[in-house]
Amino acid sequence: MNLGPHAAFILGAYGFTALVILGLVAHAVLDRRAQERALARLAKEPLKRDSARGAL
What pLDDT is stored for residue 46 in this prediction? Predict the structure, then answer.
């Protein structure tokens, strides 16, 4: 494969793109874990209803 005189630019662009995609995937995985922890914490709390305080 001959990329010619622009090989450094082409490979750099591919490398940068790979880093951005890996960063997005890592962010999605970490955010999903955080959301699952928050959901589990909310599921453990008793349900609070505004109607329990009485009508204003």
Answer: 82
Helices (H), the chain: 7-44
Q: pLDDT-derived band of residue 19, with 50, 70 and 90 as boundaries?
A: very high
pTM: 0.68
Cβ(3)–Cβ(11) below 8 Å: yes
Mean pLDDT score of the chain, rounded to an integer? Answer: 90
CB 10 within 8 A of CB 3: yes
Residue 3 gets which letter from DSSP?
A: -
The alpha carbon torsion through 31, 32, 33, 34 (nearest 10 deg) reads 50
- What are the φ and ψ backbone dihedral angles of 46, each rounded to 5 degrees? -70, 150
